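Exercise 7. Given the encoded structure of a 199-residue chain, write a plausible sequence.
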């Protein structure tokens, strides 16, 4: 179950991949001086990129989600470990009882069937908790992707980039720093974020 959240979030972020925005070039006098030189190519195409890793580490929403889901994962593991230890102890006790001729054949079969049933219930519990965790993580990942897309749509009303790329690892082999709008995006996302809704 480890890294499920991170893997899914990266996939969600890569959904940004190539966000097509307003294709009309903006006049240079309305661009920020920081991005003006890099934002407009010779053909009038304005591009920018956002560092996914920076959003994952600096966006307060994602910090809150990560902390919440780590707590849930720890609780799941604790629950499953407790069930497993109980079952292992019961199986060990049964084995000692069998060796000591403590049970009749019918009693031994009943106890063994009960242990098998408990093992199956443990497997079912693990699958159910894992599925619930993944579903919740998927919901948070979708909310992350939606919040970024909504923010970029609003942000780009003034900036008028033609394309905004998500940069993750080496998927963009080279880009000048002047094309990097990550700082603006992280600051804007954090400004809009009002904290997680308490359920």
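Solution.
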């Amino acid at each position: 179950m480890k890294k499920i959240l991170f893997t899914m979030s990266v996939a969600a972020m890569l959904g940004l991949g190539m966000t097509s925005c307003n294709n009309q070039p903006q006049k240079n006098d309305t661009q920020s001086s920081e991005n003006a030189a890099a934002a407009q190519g010779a053909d009038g195409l304005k591009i920018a990129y956002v560092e996914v890793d920076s959003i994952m580490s600096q966006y307060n929403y994602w910090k809150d989600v990560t902390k919440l889901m780590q707590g849930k994962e720890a609780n799941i593991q604790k629950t499953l470990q407790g069930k497993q230890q109980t079952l292992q102890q019961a199986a060990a006790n049964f084995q000692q009882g069998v060796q000591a001729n403590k049970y009749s054949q019918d009693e031994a079969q009943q106890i063994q069937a009960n242990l098998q049933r408990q093992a199956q219930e443990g497997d079912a519990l693990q699958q159910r908790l894992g599925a619930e965790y993944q579903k919740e993580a998927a919901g948070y990942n979708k909310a992350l992707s939606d919040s970024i897309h909504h923010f970029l749509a609003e942000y780009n009303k003034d900036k008028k980039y033609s394309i905004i790329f998500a940069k993750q690892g080496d998927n963009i082999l080279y880009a000048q720093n002047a094309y990097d709008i990550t700082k603006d995006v992280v600051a804007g996302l954090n400004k809009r974020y009002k904290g997680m809704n308490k359920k």
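Remark. The longest helix spans residues 105-159. Students should compare their own answers with the one above.
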